[in-house]
Amino acid sequence: MITKTIQVYLRDSRVFEYEITAETEEAASAKVREHAGAIMETGYRHNDGKVFEWIIPEDIKKIKSFNIQTNYPDRVSGT
Description:
Blueprint: E1 2-10, E2 15-22, H1 25-42, E3 44-47, E4 52-55, E5 60-64
């Protein structure tokens, strides 16, 4: 099983993270992209077993994961 960690950064400086698993690296990367898209579209649902909190998309600053396979790698530069 392949495990990937998804980090969700909020505007109030909190960072939530959780893990997804899949059989292959390709499937895990696809799951990360699906989760990231759904979080940005519908918001993030935090539940620690005591408190359920639904964070709206406008309060999400970014979503991050590492070592994701892609056919379209990009580069970043600054001025």
